[in-house]
Each structure stands twice: as C-alpha cells, then as structure tokens.
Design a protein that fits this description.
The protein is built from four helices and eleven strands. The chain is an alpha+beta fold. The chain has a single domain, classed as OB fold (Dihydrolipoamide Acetyltransferase, E2P), CATH 2.40.50. It is globular and about 45 Å long.
Length: 170
C-alpha cells in the first residue's frame, strides 16, 4: 500500500514538473499575458453570469459550472483597462488556486507556450496601479514580451469568500 501511495505522489510530482515553464497566454487590450498552466482547469466561452449586488465592479458575478458556483472576475476591469463588449472570442479561463475555483474573463485565449526560467525577467517596479502587484515577471518569446501574472496573488487578494457565501444564499 505504501508503494501505491509513493507511486501516486511521484506521478503528481512528475506532472507538476512537466508543467514547469508552461503558460497559457491570452490577450487583454491588445497586450499578451500569461499564467501558469498548472492553475488552469478549463477554458469556456462567455456565458450568462448572475450578478450579485454590492460587489466590486470587476467582479461580474457568479457562474454555475456543472453544479459548482464560481465567482467571475473581468481581468480587463480589474487592471483598470477600458471596458469593451464581449464577443465570440471572449473567454472565461477557469483556474483553481488553493482549492478555490474562479473564472477570469479575458479578451481572447492565444496558446500554451513554454517559457524557460532564463527567459523571464523580473517584474518592473510595482507602482500604484493595482495591476502591477499581480505581475510575476516578463516572459521573452523571440521579439515579443508576455506579461506573466502571479495568479495566486491575484486570487488571494480578492475577498472571494464573501462572494461565495452570498452566491450560496442566492
């Protein structure tokens, strides 16, 4: 039995290692962003989101995803970028961070890419803009730069527990 547990742990560790340096890239306001693929559970098209009163403007509401109610954040609004209408390319990236599932609305999903650690520069000096606090680094891919997000910090910074409690009451 101990061998089976060890094998399972080894497999999970190997899977985590295989995702090291892999990022799901997406577009927000014509800029390329990325987040570690290990947090992504799925990508879905834009869907009807149930609004919850008295939430921050970037929290669009909640979504019933196969029986689980998850909060939905519009990342464009969260980063103080101009709002735009959703279209057929708008997606919700569903992420799981420390057993908390959240949907992130983005303009368009691009691709999964490998960015070696040697090609990631530190984040620029964090200013007063809230979006800067969530930048993990700048990934260099050929002549392009992708803004790599610290998704753990972004999700932890939100008071989503309050949203989840209110959603259950709805």
């Amino acid at each position: 039995m101990a061998e089976a547990l060890s094998t399972t742990g080894d497999r999970e560790e190997a899977e985590a290692d295989s995702m090291q340096g892999r990022y799901l890239t997406f577009i927000l306001a014509n800029e390329g962003y990325g987040l570690e693929i290990r947090y992504v559970t799925e990508i879905i098209g834009i869907q009807k989101v149930t609004s919850i009163p008295d939430m921050p403007i970037h929290v669009k509401g909640v979504l019933n995803l196969r029986g689980k109610v998850i909060p939905v954040i519009d990342v464009r609004i969260r980063f103080h970028l101009p709002e735009r209408d959703y279209d057929d390319r708008t997606c919700i990236i569903v992420v799981d961070v420390e057993e908390r599932t959240v949907g992130l609305v983005v303009d368009k999903v691009s691709e999964v890419i490998d960015i070696p650690l040697s090609e990631i520069e530190p984040a620029p000096m964090a200013g007063t803009k809230s979006g800067n606090a969530y930048i993990r680094g700048m990934g260099k891919i050929e002549q392009q730069v992708k803004i790599l997000l610290d998704i753990e910090r972004l999700i932890k910074d939100e008071d989503l527990s309050e949203i989840e409690v209110e959603a259950e009451a709805v």
